[in-house]
Amino acid sequence: RLGFLGGRRAATGPMGREGRDRDRRWGPEEPSPERAAEAPRKKESKHRSGRDKAKRSRDGTTKSSAVPGRSASTASTRSESPAAKTAPRKRSPTPPPKEPVRFAHRRTSGEVWRCKKGKRSDIKPGEWDKFGYGWKQGKEEVLSRPIAYDSQTLPIPRVNRRDITPEEFHEKFASKHQPVIIEDACDDWPAMRRWSIEALEERFRNIAFKVAKDDKGKKLRMKFKYYADYVRSQRDDSPLYLFETNVDDNGYIRALTSDYEVPDLFPHDWLALVNNDARPPFRWFCIGPKRSGTTVHTDPLGTAAWNAVTHGEKHWVLFDPKESKKRVKGRDLLKDGEDDEAIMYFDFLLPRIKKQYPDLKVYEGIQKPGEVIFVPGDWWHGVLNREDTVAVTQNYCGPDNFDVVWKKTRKEREKVAYLWLRNMKKFSPSLYERATAMNRRDNFRMRHERPKGERLSDASSSSSESSSDSTSDEAVDLDPNGLEGAGVPSEVKLGAVGFQKQGAPPFPDIVTSARATFEKPGKRRRLDPEVV
Description:
The protein is α+β, with helices and mostly antiparallel strands. The chain contains 15 helices and 14 strands. The termini are far apart.
């Protein structure tokens, strides 16, 4: 059946015959009186419903009381008083916008981006400041937060250099494996004046230093002028840490070794019986921008270490070697979205560790310019640079830790152990007997004593990392410094003292001129013809 205007209408229902009759009487554009009266009521009801929904949305109320099965008391708890409904809404304060970092050199930004991208592949270079420790108000409080000492948090012992002799130091601290901070230990070093960021930039501006490593272990280097620019302007949570291991091999950087000397409290370095090309890294020149640092770790091969600060301040935390890795690192206490960089460890992870393990003894202290800290072997330690900090550190093996270092070296660095033992036999018979006695006691066979192809079942992958051991070291290949007490016979001449065919040394003026040219390559001065 076709209805009005040819539209299809149902024969029954609300729009059946009666509806068609009304349409015929009043027409499509002129509604019936019933529809005309009903339309305003529907429109008003629709508008009122919309106003009610908007009001409930503002007041935070819901229609939960109208839901079947829900008690009236539940709905009443969500209702608000009339005063609360009329109260203005509180808005959270908008954080201040983060201003972009501006560098003085046009190439600094690109160099920093390159090194950041290589060092950390888990985050983007632009996310190094996402936690806001360098730009959010109040976040840098951790850098000046005082240490609260109590029965659990103990101060690192301190002693003034003038009040202790090398013999007393060995007896009270080194032999007992106790950490200590030595005050006024390097006040007379030239480095105290020459190692400021500005002075180093003037001296090494175009020399590339190592500031990171990528996932494959490749060193990432940056010219010092760009790194100094980065240090002055950066706002990263954990900035790039300059950690130069190539001090002795790089001719430009080697000049740093003339600015300091090994403190006389640490006369031993028995790993010097391995030539510098084969021995593991043991000396580092460090620049840590504020907020940088190292997470809790132990030093390699059980070696002990001393660390001297010339500029800036370091916050140290140490744990006894008997403590487990799980307790001192506290990674199981991290929450979703948190990281365990050094500043975060000192900010919230270390307080959680103390709360979680009340029986854990924690040693903390602040190291200032001119002070040296002694970290015994196998002690857990971490550090946070509270200011832009310059330091030098060195690991050593001596009478207080030789047994531990030898056991770990023969297991973890087999080639190094072989070279070390071979040179002990050649240049230090007493030390050789001490090492082989430990091998016999432990039924340990060195690599040259095992069948070809046999490896230790629990040896680390780094045990093969070394230079070739096909040639034998001569006395002139070894550094005599640090071999005090190693049992080297007096007739053995190590290092340059063993040269026999070098002839007389060159003229002093020529040496001086060469050194001046070396330290300032841009300012060459001509040699005096009369001297030449």
